[in-house]
Amino acid sequence: MEETPEQMLFRGINTTQKDVVEKALELGADVNSKDQNLTPLLLLAQKRNNAKILQLLLQKGADVTATSLTKQNALHQVAYHGDLEMAEILLGYGVDFTVENTYGKTPEDIANTRNFSELVEQFQHTLIKGDC
């Protein structure tokens, strides 16, 4: 049985193959699909630590407000891992770092708790610039 464009898309993200993700999107896969756990693709790309795929999904119109079941957006996960590169990409597309998850924590709260001072500074700089 041939895989659907959505299956191809998830395979590409899970195996961090940007060319497979591009092909799946060309074939009509929905950039705002969610996995069986209702996790948005942006969060899956972040979990796989693949900035190029994350950037591609954003360029193709991925919903920057997408959240997990615990109301975490991609920046909550980035903050947990302290990934400055992905934070810059997401902030550049307007992902909100002031939104609270189910536990009342913002991405900045998480970065601060985990002592990722450079990331906290990035959030504060973005807030000062008024980009959020």
UniProtKB/TrEMBL annotation:
**SMART domains reported for this sequence:** ANK
Q: Where is the signal peptide?
A: none
Q: What PROSITE patterns does the database record attribute to this sequence?
A: ANK_REP_REGION, ANK_REPEAT
One short Pfam name that applies is Ank_5
**Start-end of the ANK repeats?**
36-69, 70-102
Q: For this UniProt record, give its keywords in alphabetical order, as a comma-separated list.
A: ANK repeat, Repeat
Name this polypeptide is given: Ankyrin repeat domain-containing protein
Which lineage is the organism of this entry classified under, starting from the top rank? Eukaryota, Amoebozoa, Discosea, Flabellinia, Dactylopodida
